[in-house]
Design brief:
Layout (H helix, E strand, L loop, with lengths): L11 H19 L23 E2 L11 H6 L12 H5 L10 E6 L5 E4 H5 L5 E8 L4 E11 H8 L7 E6 L19 E5 H5 L4 E6 L2 E2 L9 E3 L12 E7 L6 H5 L23 E4 L7 E2 L7 H4 L13
Parallel strand pairs: 1-4, 2-11, 5-12
Antiparallel strand pairs: 2-3, 4-5, 5-8, 6-7, 6-11, 8-9, 8-10, 12-13
């Protein structure tokens, strides 16, 4: 990546916040959990200070789930296929320092950048988003992050770049689920460029004002609130700009169930169950009507004008 110009140097307050975040992220993700015998919860990071954030105008008004809900009931197959496996198996996960991200493909600024580089000049925003999974459950999570668009602009995609592909860390020593053949590793996901540039799409570095725990995708994950949860790729180590649509991991594994777009759509059933209703945790009963685009239709439906969302699921 090109050297940063003097005019882009971060002011001292942002710099100190960023340095504190990096130190806290690495410490929290590797810290031993305080075990709750019922929830197996990884408690908030022990560093004793919150991330410096501002409230986003795009934040929703739903009441968030608890820290225990969001950190003990997770899909992160790199740490196991059971919902409780990530909280149990990610306790010892230690993100490498510095955390690096490869920038590849159709862009002017290819190369390796660190998480600290990515955070330079960023304002971390608190965003309360609904989170919907294909298994029929949902949560409301207060994410901490910044627009993916800001990273994309920094990479200067070429006119050929129509898609953005993301890749998760491959580390079988720390991620026991990668020793299985449940998916082809490393995990890969992608977005169309207009989806990636949409202001609702963020890269998250925290939740509840704390740095991300391992089971939630430390230290950097994607959040796209109008799509099913499997699009939210975690522990990102590579961003690649492509002219053609990439094939995501679940799309490769089970294309009849997991399409590339993955927009929340109550009219399109999963092969095993309906998507028309959902259970808002901690309730186990599907009593909530699923909303198209997870309730974000006013903001994002125009992205798919003219597209058959039953065929392009």
């Amino acid at each position: 990546m090109a050297d940063i110009q003097s005019s882009e140097i971060t002011d001292k307050r942002c710099y100190l916040n960023r340095r504190a975040f990096i130190a806290s992220a690495l410490a929290a993700a590797g810290a031993s959990a305080i075990v709750n015998p019922e929830l197996h919860a990884q408690q908030p990071a022990p560093h004793g200070r919150k991330l410096a954030t501002v409230k986003s105008p795009l934040s929703g008004s739903d009441s968030p789930n608890t820290w225990e809900h969001a950190t003990t009931y997770n899909n992160f197959y790199e740490f196991g296929t059971s919902k409780s496996d990530p909280a149990l198996n990610a306790r010892g996960f230690k993100p490498r320092a510095p955390w690096t991200i490869e920038i590849e493909g159709e862009c002017a600024k290819r190369g390796t950048i660190t998480l600290e580089d990515v955070l330079k000049g960023q304002t971390l925003e608190d965003r309360v988003y609904r989170h919907r999974c294909v298994e029929g459950w949902s949560m409301v999570i207060p994410w901490v992050g910044f627009p993916l668009a800001s990273l994309i602009k920094r990479c200067e995609p070429t006119s050929k770049a129509a898609f953005v592909e993301f890749t998760t860390l491959l580390d079988r020593r720390q991620m026991p689920g990668q020793a299985t053949d449940v998916l082809e590793w490393p995990y890969v996901e992608g977005l169309r460029m207009d989806e990636a540039m949409h202001p609702l799409t963020i890269l998250a570095v925290g939740l509840y004002g704390e740095v991300l725990p391992g089971q939630n995708g430390a230290p950097l994950r994607l959040v796209v609130p109008w799509k099913y949860g499997f699009k939210g790729i975690k522990s990102i180590v590579k961003v690649r700009f492509l002219a053609k649509q990439p094939v995501s991991s679940w799309q490769l594994s089970w294309p009849q169930a997991y399409g590339f777009f993955a927009n929340v759509n109550p009219a399109v059933a999963h092969p095993r169950y309906s998507q028309a209703v959902e259970a808002r945790l901690p309730s186990l009963f599907r009593t909530m009507r699923t909303l198209p685009f997870n309730g974000y239709g006013d903001q994002v439906a125009s992205l798919y004008s003219g597209l058959d969302l039953r065929r392009n699921y």
